[in-house]
Structures are given as C-alpha cells and as structure tokens.
Design goal:
By secondary structure, this protein is of the alpha/beta class. 50% of the residues lie in helices and 18% in strands. Strand 8, helix 13 and strand 9 form a beta-alpha-beta unit.
Length: 302
C-alpha cells in the first residue's frame, strides 16, 4: 500500500508542476490499501491500478493530503495546480499551505509551515513543490513525530542526496538533459544567440550549474553564441517587484544588443512574466524549461 500511495502522491506533485493542465484520467482518485493494489502497481497494469484506486478508500479510512507551494507571485503554476487538485478532491481531503516568498531569509518560517501540516492527526502525506531550502529539515522533524506520514519532495532546491535522506520520494525534472534540448529547440526556431538569465543562488545548485555547462557546449555544436546575464534574486532584499522591474527595464537593451534572433531563458518563475511581456513587444524568443518533452519554444514569446 505504501508503494501505491507514494506513486499516487507523485502524481499529485506532477499535477502541481503542470499547473492546471491535469486531466480527469490522472490516477489520483481516492487512495487506500490492499496487498492486491500494491502488486498491481508493481505489475504496471494501469487499468487494474485504476480499479484498485477506486476501492482502496475503505481500507485506509479517513485521510488528508497536504500540499505546500510558493505563492502565486513566486510560482503561479505550482500554486494553481495545487488549488485545482484541492478543488477536484475537496478541501476535506486536501490541505494547502504557502511557504514565504523570501524563503532563504525566512528559513525557520518555511520549516514550520511544512511541519505544521503534521499537526493534523489525519494527515497521511505531505507534498512540497518546489522543495525550497528548509524542506529537508522539515521532513526530518515530521518523521520524528509522525513516521507514518509519507513525505514527497518536488523540484528539490537542496542537494539531492540531502533531501533524499529525509524524503520518501524525490521527483525532479531532468535538468541536465534539458540543457541540450533547450539549445536544440532554440536553434530549430532560428535563434543565433542564447541568453541565460539567472543569479548566484541558483547557479550554486549542482543540477543548474551542470545544465549551464551542457548549454554552453550545445551552443558550440549548433554555432550559437552563449551569453550569461544576471538578474536580481527575487528572494533578496529587492523582492519580487524589484526583480521583475529589472527584467522589464533591461529587455529592450538586451534585444538591441543581441538582436531579435536571440532566445531567452530564465531560471526563476518570477522573471518569466516580465520577460514574456517585453519580448512580445521588442522581439526575440522565449524558451521555457519546464514544459513536457518534446520541448517547446515560443517564437515572439507567444
């Protein structure tokens, strides 16, 4: 049952990743447990697993699922996906929480927000997406007090071995492979320059630093110019408004400098909206990292 529940909640996390783009056939119908259901999951028979999911609730009794995301201003897709899941399965089953926008400076608040979910005696699983710094410590505290709760981390910001030591399941996009796919897509769209926009905190993540190295080499392969641009961290003193204002102010100069055949990519959701807005007006390509494969690019940022 635990394996089945883990896989089921992984789908919850993936729904959050995809925003509101889930479909009604997601096998996240109410859960429960029988040994037959666990065997069905191992056998990979999706039809039987769906039938089992429909009958599992009687075996597990009442339960709650907690989902912790960023705010709409920090990570709108994550938040809207969680809200859609709650709307579908009910507030009586799904509890939502938001970690602080400035999570790097409010680490204790972030930890406590996640840990507070375990105060609910009916809580059976907690999903954190994105798993910002503090998630590992929060999961450790939860496991000490409530080892029965399944902890799932999505899009880990902490080192994978570290978060893996506390979480029951960690799910990340394949950042490194996408480094090549993103550049290939930009080349196929006709871009001759690739502009990578980020900041030191993100570049300190191993997966992101490796992806940048892959991107740079891929640009060489496709005969493209690779450029690194730095923008303010939305979790710094300038906050989200300051970070977004910087993008709004600098895109016109970037387009003039790199031309309208440049493709732009940013590592933070808060930078996305102003970048899209300005590219629509001034020209250029926006490449989104978190779309399902095959990776899509948006000419003119449409």
């Amino acid at each position: 049952m635990k394996k089945f529940f883990s896989m089921l909640l992984a789908l919850v996390m993936l729904l959050a990743l995809a925003g509101c783009g889930g479909n009604d056939k997601t096998p996240a119908q109410d859960q429960g447990g029988s040994s037959d259901a666990g065997q069905t999951q191992q056998d990979g028979d999706s039809g039987e697993a769906g039938d089992a999911a429909a009958t599992l609730e009687d075996g597990i009794g009442d339960y709650h699922i907690g989902i912790v995301t960023g705010s709409v201003s920090q990570s709108e897709d994550d938040r809207r996906g969680a809200e859609a899941f709650q709307a579908k399965y009910g507030e009586d089953k799904v509890t939502l929480a938001i970690y602080p926008d400035n999570f790097t400076e409010e680490l204790e608040t972030t930890i406590q927000t996640i840990v507070n979910m375990s105060d609910d005696p009916l809580m059976k699983a907690i999903v954190v997406n994105q798993s910002v710094p503090g998630t590992t410590e929060a999961f450790r505290q939860i496991k000490e007090r409530r080892p029965d709760i399944i902890c799932i981390a999505g899009e880990a910001h902490e080192d994978l071995p570290e978060i893996g030591s506390a979480a029951d399941l960690v799910c990340n996009n394949d950042f490194v492979s996408r480094g090549y796919l993103i550049i290939r897509t930009a080349h196929e769209l006709g871009a001759d320059t690739f502009v990578h926009i980020s900041f030191p905190r993100h570049m300190a993540y191993e997966t992101m630093s490796r992806r940048v190295a892959v991107m740079e080499e891929a640009c060489k392969e496709f005969g493209m110019k690779f450029v690194l641009e730095t923008a303010p961290d939305p979790t710094s003193d300038v906050g989200i408004p300051g970070a977004q204002a910087y993008i709004l102010e600098n895109v016109p100069a970037w387009v003039q400098k790199y031309g309208e055949n440049a493709a732009y990519f940013c590592t933070n959701d808060a930078h996305t909206e102003p970048l899209l807005k300005q590219l629509v007006e001034y020209g250029g390509y926006f490449i989104e990292a978190d779309l399902p494969s095959p990776l899509m690019g948006y000419p003119g940022a449409l």
